[in-house]
Design a protein that fits this description.
By secondary structure, this protein is an alpha/beta fold. The protein has 12 helices and 10 strands. It is globular. The structure holds pyridoxal-5'-phosphate. The site of pyridoxal-5'-phosphate has 14 residues, from α4. Its cofactor is pyridoxal 5'-phosphate.
Amino acid sequence: MFFEITASTPVYLLPFSPLLISVFSIIEEVRIVQECGRENSLDWMNSSRGWYTYEVSPVFLLVEEAVIKKMIEFIGWEEGDGIFNPGGSVSNMYAMNLARYKFCPEIKEKGLSGLPRLVLFTSEECHYSMKKAASFLGIGTKNVYFIKTDERGKMIPEELEKQGSAPFLVCATAGTTVLGAFDPLDKIADICEKHGLWLHVDASWGGSALISRKHCRLLHGIHRADSVAWNPHKMLLAGIQCCALLVKDNSGLLKKCYSAEAAYLFQQDKFYDVSYDTGDKSIQCSRRPDAFKFWLMWKALGTTGLEERVNRALALARYHHVNENGIELLEYANVCFWYIPPSLRKMEDGPEFWQKLHQVAPIIKERMMKKGSMMLGYQPHQGKVNFFRQVVISPQVSREDMDFLLDEIELLAKDL
Ligand SMILES: *Cc1c(COP(=O)(O)O)cnc(C)c1O
């Protein structure tokens, strides 16, 4: 050994040996634990070095591999691939491009010229990143076909089946952003299988339910997807950003689609197994070690701890949402509601009522923000006038807080 290894020795100074990997891990872990106890731990995590190759960042690359493997297990695939990205929107974009590459591999070199018009199907409740991805990738927002949803916000499989022009991709949503709806994945997978279509599931929001034995049935059929976007930074509360795109293909499709084989980083004649140089699967060069945040959290809380986090959030969301027969009205953590103020309670249902109700949420929101008592989102949505949307995920929220929320709205709106 030529170097004295201390927690502050830069990793690039250490001589490489497979044996040392475990030493690296220990040093890293010691350092990480030390750093995490300090105020600037998040800054530290966010500013630590890039990790395109194994030699630059052996520990973080192995951590990413381990976390992806675990996430794939929860999806129910026997094998697969994946990459952490800066956001679910970017994961969706990756998936769209990957599906298109599978559909016509020559696009990587020849570009869009000479290609027929390509269309994709998603639901009208999908995340807006679908449109952004379509415009960014040169597919065009007009080539995104929005399939009708039912009254709960779920894609109607019969409407999907009815569509004429053949798409290269169907994107289902598991946990829609506004209503928290889960598309019927099994039925959608049947249709995709029949027509040989790539199925992407945007589980950015709902994916974390996979960790809960009680709620994972919401995503029944997800193992039949070709790709899945899952954000541990949402329901599981990993530090932003922490988002993975997971791909069922394990034959190197992700790498073939994205690699540029820069000779100064990804030399093929290195003395170690270069399949660990996973950075060429990304559209980025340097990346932040986002997988590490999830890994650390998973280690600290265990699968049971994460499961409890999901169960607790969903139980709290249901606190206000059980009808008089004790039946749960809610699927996920999106509690959407109108507050009807005193002056509207005796009014007849009609356009005037809805027009007045539309103005209520913005006024209450303004009042709560100026008073500084709460923050609660509202929006109009698919023909519905402004309603509040409360999403409970923090383990620090209590039932008293849930009661406070409604009491406070009542107080703020008593003269309306
Ligand atoms: C939040 C969300 C996204 C976007 O995730 P970002 O990490 O904010 O880019 C995508 N899809 C769904 C369904 C979401 O709820």
